[in-house]
Amino acid sequence: MTMAEAIRRFVPDGATVAMGTCLEPAIPFAAGHEMIRQGRRDLTLVGPISDALFDQLIGAGCVAAVRAAWVGNVSEGLGHCYRRATELGEPRPIRVYDYSNFSISLALWAAAWDAPYLPTRTLLGSDILRTNPELQVVDGVVRVPPLRPDVAVLHVQRSDAWGRAHLWGPLGISEEAGLAARSVVLCCEELVDPEITLSDPNRILLPETRVVAVVHEPGGCHPSPLQGHWRRDHAAYRAYAERSRTREGFRGWLEEWVLSVPDRRAYLERLEAEAVRVRVHRPSAPADYGDE
Amino acid sequence: MSASGSAPYTPQELMVAAAAREIRDGELVFVGMRLPILAYGVARNTHAPRARALYELGLMRDRAPEAFLATMGDPPNVVAALWATRMSNVMALMAQGQVDLGFIGGAEVDRFGNLNTSYIGDPARPRVKLPGSGGGADIAILSRRWITLMAHEPRRLVERVSYVTSPGHGDGTPGWRRRNGLPGGGPVAIVTTMAVLRFPPEGGEAYLDSVHPGHSVEEVRARTGWDLKVPDRVRSTPAPTAEELGWIRRLDPEGHWTRSP
Fold first, then answer.
1. Are B12 and B259 in contact (CB under 8 A)?
2. Are strands A118-120 and B157-158 parallel, antiparallel or unpaired?
3. What pTM, to 2 d.p., does this model score?
4. Are strands A141-144 and A118-120 parallel, antiparallel or unpaired?
5. What is the ipTM metric for this complex?
6. Which of A161, B75, B216, B227 has the highest CB neighbour count under 10 A?
7. Beta carbons of B91 and A105 less than 8 angstroms apart
8. Catalytic residues of B, which ones?
9. Contact A157/A192 with Cβ under 8 angstroms?
10. B84 and A168: CB-CB below 8 Å?
11. Would you kindly state where each structural domain of chain B is located, as residue ranges?
């Protein structure tokens, strides 16, 4: 399926969307940019930390609410579009539901397990309990209610056409986001045969029954890194931070890198992305699933 | 550079060295972002060869990669990791009290070690929206002890933070953390560009422990947003050693985190 079709069919206006679930690596920028091109509105974004992608969607006016522990630009600092939206209501006001990394993971696990809440001691003494009234303290323990995204968009190293995805490196909150979400859109660096994915079932991230779309989108996570494929493009994050400092600068960035680009292939051609492609490969030893 | 402009190291390099010395050999360290990533690398290669590092996105390591890291998720940080896993697994170790030391960055800290990384002004219409907790609140509440690093400016070291993202010693009364159910021990030090502030073992209010070379007690007090407690004897922070500086510059060769702003 193409990215345009996957976003059109599975990320409607008003959807609650989990993205960036590995934290800094494997962020599905290509999917987010397609949401901007299609003019998506009133999204609720769910994530642990967001390294620039949420800032871009907020600046483009796609977002009504954010449920996250951190929104900014990890190597550069503040998210300028996030600031304009929360401080000035530009281009539109957004509602922020504060979490910490641990508590947003717990909220997704609660939904994954269909638990009414998960009890924890984290957040005791934090004003996050004041600005996110959904987090209640009962008998000295914080109750984290379930958080169920409509869709989780995950970028992985490889998948087959049936949605059996292999993801490696740190997983962040990808498993709980996928299990909590009503549906999963997979973006994969490589589209492979089932004989490859099924040769290592322990590495399959999520049940295929949850996956509604598989998009073969090489380079779809740029400028975030992907183990074995892409290094992090620090210069791209720096350039975005500088240009997004003003609303005019952000509009120029958005026009150049999102609105005037038809798809990810064209984006990569404009970028000359080969400079950040991983060149030193370190394959792991294969696991032996021998059975008789 | 120091006030004289002649120090052979930057304030950030001194902060990294001071933070590295807080890591004891054999400890499990919850490493945050920026300077603490370098501090772990320095400690591991000098006085703490058996210190292990945890990264919240789901990694455990027993050595720093020989590469610059702009984030904990850069691919070199995964190579030869002891464990690549999900976030909730590393949070499990911290919830169990297994994390000896955590590092948290902050925009604002107050005299009781409470950190604000969320909102300056009214949260409903903030004057400045900061990025938020990340894992900061979790580290502040669950790690056995923690340290924060920041530039020494009156707007950052404030009497009371307006929003407590990551709780320190609360209102400063004895036993505040225990009374409120916070399992970890709380902040033990604030490492700044001018000084090291510490907290008494039972918690409470920060006091001046050491002043960095090139700065004075009066200057530190003037740049602190509350009436800073100064004991009779204030040490001079030891300058980074040649070995420490060597590791800092190897791990941050272009000075991305440690050049003077």
1. yes
2. unpaired
3. 0.97
4. antiparallel
5. 0.97
6. B75
7. yes
8. 56
9. no
10. yes
11. 11-251
Domains by residue range for chain A, with CATH: 3-269 (3.40.1080.10)
Q: What's the whole-number average pLDDT of chain B?
A: 95
Q: How far apart are CA B53 and CA B65, in angstroms?
A: 11
User: What is the predicted pLDDT for the residue at B6?
Assistant: 53
- Dist. CA B64–CA B37, nearest whole Å: 8
Distance CA B31, CA A182 (A): 34
Which DSSP string corresponds to B1-54? --TTS--SS-HHHHHHHHHHHTSPTT-EEE--SSHHHHHHHHHHHTT-TT-EEE
CB-nearest to A101 from B85, B118, B135 is: B135
Q: Which of B173, B54, B137, B53 is nearest to A121 (CA)?
A: B137
Q: What CA–CA distance (Å, rounded) separates B40 from B21?
A: 9
What are the CB-based long-range contacts (under 8 Å, 24+) for A130-139?
A130/B123, A131/A96, A131/A98, A131/B118, A131/B119, A131/B123, A131/B163, A132/A97, A132/A98, A132/A99, A134/A97, A135/A103
pLDDT at residue A171 tops 50: yes
Residue percentage of chain B with pLDDT more than 70: 97
Q: What is d(CA A47, CA A144) in angstroms, rounded to the nearest whole number?
A: 15
Q: Do A70 and B134 touch (CB under 8 A)?
A: yes
| pLDDT given for residue A274 in this prediction | 86
Query: Would you call A68 helix, strand, or coil by DSSP?
Result: strand
pLDDT, mean over chain A: 97
Chain A nearest-CA residue for B141: A122
Q: Is the dihedral of CA A64, A68, A69, A71 positive or negative?
A: negative
Q: CB–CB of A68 and B126 under 8 A?
A: no
SS3 A36: helix
CB pairs under 8 A between A and B: 187
Count CA atoms within 13 Å of residue A144 on its CB side: 28
- H or E segment at B89? helix B87-95
Bridge-based pairing state of the strands B146-150 and A183-191: unpaired
Shortest Cα–Cα distance, B30 to chain A (Å): 13
- Residues A234-263 have pLDDT tens digits of 999 999 999 999 999 999 999 999 999 999
Q: Dump pLDDT digits (tens) for B29-45.
A: 999 888 999 999 999 99
pLDDT of B71 > 70? The answer is yes
pLDDT band at B5; cut points 50, 70, 90: very low
If DSSP codes are grouped into helix, strand and coil, which group holds residue A87?
A: helix
To the question of domain B11-251 being in CATH 3.40.1080.10, the answer is yes
Residue A161, amino acid: A
- Alpha-carbon dihedral sign for residues B155, A237, A53, A122: negative
pLDDT tens-digit series, residues A223-235 = 999 999 999 999 9
- When pLDDT is cut at 50, 70 and 90, the band that residue A273 belongs to is confident
Q: Kindly report, residue by residue over A40-92, the tens digit of the pLDDT.
A: 999 999 999 999 999 999 999 999 999 999 999 999 999 999 999 999 999 99
